[in-house]
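for the record, two folds in this file. i put them one after another cuz i was lazy. first one right below, seq on top, structure tokens after. the second one comes after a little note so u can tell where it starts
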Amino acid sequence: PDCIVTATNEVYITLEALEADTAHEIAFNQILIPGTDSVFYAGDTTSSLTLRINPGTSQTTFRFFYEDTEFDSLVVSYSRQTKMISPKCGAFNYFQDLAVVSSSFHEVIVKNPQLISGGTTNITIKL
């Protein structure tokens, strides 16, 4: 078989207006993942985000600093399954069962609980 790999540790997030199903652009100061020194979307204005989960754990916390907020947080959990594509391609970790553990946002909706490459929305945040 071809070595087509859809495994990823990226979560695709869309931001929508609270009262409508329309894209809502937010000016971010930064997005942080506690326990790492990575800074994401510093100074960016966007309505869609791609953030990486920690593949070595079963949950990841994201802290969103934007506009006049101190910060909002989102904690997600997931499970990992290793799948062998073929002996030639090898094994890859697939992340699934994405769920919201806690959030300070008004509303968070899991649209697709499996992380796959290609930009399919996993989570929608209403704000």
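(here's the note) second protein begins now
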Amino acid sequence: MSENTPQIRVKSGIPWYIWFLLILVGGGVLAATVVSLTPVDPEQTYQDAMAAYDVKDAKAFKALLATLKTQEGYESHVQLLEALDLLGNSRPLKAVPVFAEAAKNESIRTLALSYQAQAMARGDQRKEAIGVLRQAIQNDPDDKMPHGILGGILYEIGAYTEALQELAVTTEHGTDKEAASAHNLRGNMLLELGRGEEAAADFEAALSRDPRNVANGYIALRMLQSLNQAGQFSKTLEMIDAADQSAKKEAIRAEALLETGDVTAALKVIEDTNMAEARDSSTIEIEAKILASGKVDQSEVEIKLPKLRESMIRMSRNARYFGYMAEALKLTGHEEEANLYLQNHEQLVDREKQYHELRDQVIDTVEDVESRLNLGRLAAACGHFEESQFWLTTAKRIEPERTGEVARLQNELLRLLPELVSLGSFRVLPENVSSTPPTDIPPIDPTKIDTDPEKHRDTKKATDQTNSDTGAAASDSPADPSTKKE
């Protein structure tokens, strides 16, 4: 536009763009006035705040909470939201009394009690949380939420029998994600209990209900383990590609091939896996099983035995490994050596029987800490070290004040293991491995372990201080059943 071009003006002489700005500002003021005069729907505000909390939209949640605070008759709802804010900011024990106050309102009682229990569990008050959840269920038996949280807590403390029942409610009435999580927890318990067919069904349902779960590769691996445990080897081979690649997956594949008659393919899978990755305990066990099957040429068994003998240092308490090795050694004429492996096999099988018998009693209990400690010892004695750590952890989850005692037992557990029969001159170790086997360490009488809580007070203080400094709950895992434990 040139300097001589006149500006467009309205009749009053005010430039048009000034009028435009006045209209724009005035319209905004008018709109704000209309909004401020529109009555707030407190129920909708509360529901929107809960939705914002679920999707972790902190900004919207705080704005909606501020709005709800201005409304009469919703004081309990405000308390519930304030408690959720505390819980979401890792202050579970601060949230507990606020949830309890909100629970006095009958309309949100079950919800408030459920969240209160979740906060208590995250603050290492699981026994108390279980009692609160039973109140919530009594208040509204049809509400799925307290069933799901209770099932998760019971799983954490090893009370499998009741946990399976509670989580079944979530699998039937929960959302897809909630149901998938519950199916996964049920599958873990059922697999450990030797109920492979039921476990496989739960794992398969978990994959189906939440197909985008990042953990599905591992869940699929557990499903394959369950199928093999149930003897459904053909189905294992059909679904093998659902699991992430690993030595454990290839061991499962090899076992399924062996059991469906393809011994050559099974042995090749193990050989290829051993070349591609470091020898894994799962592939060692299945290789021993293949060699013990009587379907491999005796000369080839003789060639492969030395490596399997070396692997004993990693399989020193695996009853199945000792049994398969005994059979393979008999097939190749090593009767004296086979007899030593067989003695250890029988000793470990006897301990496994004791472990299973005690476990089947413990899973019916909620507060039996001593039996859980004994179960942890027995699990280690028969080579189930992951299960051992789990059962020892359940003890401190039930009674957090015994954390120091449990930690000391976990640290000394290997020294408490009973000795196996020595393989003597037949024992073969890989190069650069100490010739002194772990079983040569003299066992300690478990009854003489120092369990005086006064001597572990400093450990607990240090743990509590660390949790306080970080603002985290003094909990080793959340009670939310959507969080899986492996």
